[in-house]
Design goal:
The protein is globular. The longest helix is centred in the first third of the chain and has 25 residues, at 5-29. It is α+β, with helices and mostly antiparallel strands and 272 residues long. Helix 5 (192-200) runs parallel beside helix 7. It has helices at residues 5-29, 47-63, 94-98, 172-181, 192-200, 214-217, 220-226, 254-265; strands spanning 36-39, 43-46, 68-71, 84-92, 105-112, 115-123, 128-133, 138-140, 143-144, 157-160, 185-187, 206-210, 230-232, 245-249. The mean pLDDT is 90. The protein folds into two domains: 5-144, Fructose-1,6-Bisphosphatase, Chain A, domain 1, CATH 3.30.540.10; 153-265, D-Maltodextrin-Binding Protein, domain 2, CATH 3.40.190.80.
């Protein structure tokens, strides 16, 4: 089955409305004292996460009652077998938000039978709205964006992220070390959605991370692809939302990144 352009436009319009409404909540509450709780030992949740998510879920449920909604804080219910499934991260960059560091976003992605169809990522601090519809390109504040044309890793600026939990058992420090030495540098924004959109806009040339959830990537992966980039797992296979490993790039440095990743994975697991 294929969706019509009018359907996709309606889906995107709703995603944008929800993202902007949730972003306004986050912006309003950003400078206020935070009421923080924890999921497990170190994963932060704020009341703003919950309010943002409730706003998004309510709008999506009202417009599309037959669709599934999978949201980070559980407000959307369980993943069902519906053709259309929304993946919602109401506050991507919660730790930044909780500490008053102004880098965070609302991320809303729609999958159609498992394939990305619509994505909206809104950074309320910068008032930047990244959007994409399958086969219709990617935009930043309604203007087309494209990935960079940097051809080699040595001239690239990269980004990555580290998990809030199980840091000592996560292998990313090895990749961070190696890619830092082989590039212009590696940045860590603390928001996978912003990292992905930064690749799409040509600000970063590549991004990788381990252990991302489907709501972290469902929107951003489409924005990258529609901007001309590539998103795969570490073996070079097409990435699917929820896969354990992700590589996103402008395409021209992708194979070089994959080759280096394979070299790192083959080494003994010792710290640099």
């Amino acid at each position: 089955m294929t969706e019509s352009n009018s359907d996709a436009a309606h889906f995107l319009e709703t995603a944008v409305e929800a993202a902007r409404e949730a972003g306004a909540i986050l912006l309003q509450e950003f400078d206020r004292p935070k009421k923080i709780s924890y999921k497990g030992e170190v994963d932060i949740v704020t009341e703003s996460d919950k309010r943002s998510e409730a706003t998004i879920v309510a709008r999506l449920q009202n417009r599309f009652p037959q669709h599934s909604i999978i949201a980070e804080e559980g407000g959307g219910g369980d993943e069902k077998s519906a053709r259309y499934r929304w993946y919602v991260d109401p506050l991507d960059g919660t730790t930044n938000f909780a500490h008053g560091y102004p880098v965070f976003a609302v991320s809303i992605g729609l999958l159609d039978d498992g394939e990305p169809l619509v994505g909206a990522v809104f950074n309320p601090i910068a008032d930047e709205l990244f959007t994409a519809v399958r086969n219709q390109g990617a935009q930043l504040n309604h203007k087309p964006i494209r990935v960079s044309d940097i051809a080699t890793l040595s001239k690239s600026l990269l980004s990555t992220g580290f998990p809030a939990h199980k840091r000592t058992s996560n292998p990313n420090i090895h990749y961070y070390w190696e890619f830092t030495l082989r590039s212009h540098g590696v940045r860590r924004a603390g928001s996978a959605a912003i990292d992905l959109c930064s690749v799409a806009a040509g600000r970063f040339d590549g991004f990788w991370e381990f252990g991302l959830k489907s709501w972290d990537t469902a929107a951003g992966m489409l924005v990258v692809r529609e901007a001309g980039g590539i998103v795969t797992d570490f073996a070079g296979r097409p990435y699917h939302a929820g896969d354990r490993e992700l590589f996103a790039s402008n395409g021209t440095i992708h194979q070089e990144m994959l080759t280096i990743a394979a070299e790192i994975a083959a080494r003994p697991a010792t710290l640099p």
